[in-house]
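Contributing new records

If you add data, match the layout below exactly. Sequence lines come first and carry their own label; structure lines follow with theirs. Keep one chain per record. Anything else will be rejected by the validation script.
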Amino acid sequence: MLSTLNVSQTGMNAARIAVENVSNNIANENTVGYKKRVVQVSELAQSDGRFTGRGVDSSAAYRITSQYMYDKIMSENTKANYYDKVSNMIGSVESIFSETKDSGFSADLNRYFQAIENLRTNPNSEIYKSVLKSSGSIVVESLQNLYTSIEQQQLSEKTELKVNVNKVNGLLKEIGDINVKLEKYEFNNDLLDKRDQLELELSNYVDISVNRAGGYYELKVAGEMAISNNTNVRTFDVIESKTNQIDKFYNQKFDSKGNFEIIDPLKFEADNTTPKTYADGDKITYKLNNAVEVSITIGEKIRDTTKPEDPVTGYPFLDINGDGNFEISEDELVRALVFKINNSEETKGLVSAYNGDYLVDAAGKRTTNDNADQYLRIESKFPGTENQFEGRLSVEKNIVPPSTPEDRVGEVLFRNENVSKNPQTDVTITINEKEISLKSGIMKAQVDNLSSSLGANKFQVYLDKLDSFAKTLSDVSDKFMKVGSNEYIYGDAASDASNGVVENIGLFTGLNVKDLKFNKSAVNDLNQEKLDYLATIQWKKDISFDGIGQKNSNPSKSTSLLDFFRDLKVGISSDKESNDFLQETQNNVKQSIKSSYEQLTRVDKDEEMLNLMKFQAAYTANAKIVTTINEMIQTLLGLKR
């Protein structure tokens, strides 16, 4: 009888604990990260040889969860946040390019072309000249505002990335602290709920994988260990690396065994076999950013400003070969250009020139083999995409005697794209100084769009297109050559490489948006012939934006200035639409898994009320047994009396 009393007492205690658990579930229905609890009820183990039971044990409660489903939610959440972030970034750029009928860059460009048309009707009108000066300046300002706004968006993302890295490090530390408490208290549902919530928040930023097997906890980010041995936490850093631009002007000649020989295009024709011949007066020019020129002329003497100046005769002449002959010959072209580029006030602060490849000694000094011309190598003085430059060589030969503009023979030489290097500005995430490759998450979207070497960098794509627009506008507005009644050779590079009379305009200068300038003074020099040429630019449909001159245009990629800009706007909207489709799809996948998971783990009030009634009934039943046993005991005691 007494053992039955003990069984009822454990039943009442289990029912009481279960009722308290139901109340706790209902109270935490809206608590973020809370998973409903279930009291674990089990039969008390036998301690002797009796056949009857000893009652019920209700000392533990466990969370209703599915670790597999939760890990899937984190995985899909990371992907969804990647698309959300990309959509947000492209959307910000799209808003920058928003236009109305009367405002925006397209309207400014149309007003500029209209100003040219107006001045064309009366080249001497001061009013029309003033309007052209104003509209040309507005085009530059409007284009630079677009460019600067995208750069500001980039800078904002870079700042936010650093904040996000700090958040990730903070979340990892919190998880490590929770693991310390779990080791101390062994099992705690509240701590486990908190850790799950921190893991889910962490998955917003980076892709993670968690191993919780056998009480051992490890967390990896992008496959690299971030938390090991439960409490060993590593931290992340943001590293920005920059490289210099390197332009190499040489061709390659392969032999029968596949070995190649470096061919200087200043010394050999396009077939890489026939030597070029020069005569006094032939000129070789290095042009930087379509604005600065450094030239050498066959037969000229160059003052060596690196040596002491004689008070009477001035600086000595440069003796390149050391043979006492100061006149530049055709076997000294590269070394003469290197000297002039490195000593010109307009170029020496931007680029460094070398006679071929160099060796670097222990002190960091660069030395080249200057016994003979190698090839022209140009490097930016400072690293990063913000220090990108555009350079080309032009060779101008004159047929003498006699020498007339029509006898001019031109050629343009561009860098070897296969061996030259563009400047890079890359942002990477490291853990213990080791670079990691994120697969998804907010930080993945930011890293992709802050590194110029990655094809996924939408910011850089849009900036490059704006630079291409500025470069082309400057090119076609700088020089031209008339070859027919209404036919022209457009652009600086195309004119340099063609025969005939070159007309200089110089209306725009600069080979990127930042350096783009509208030269108001050039408006005063516009005659009817130049205005007739400028008027054709608006309607020209085969303008090349490949950066190597209009004569080398690719018809399949050629378009007009206005259509190029419209295509850029359409491309941005298309990128946004494509990403939004992926975003919506991914969010649906995430929501589907989340809904299934929440059906399992969230508190259901109806279910809890049924449980409350069930456990109250169990408590009442056990209480009645106790009451009955008590009455029986009282009856027995009364019989004894």
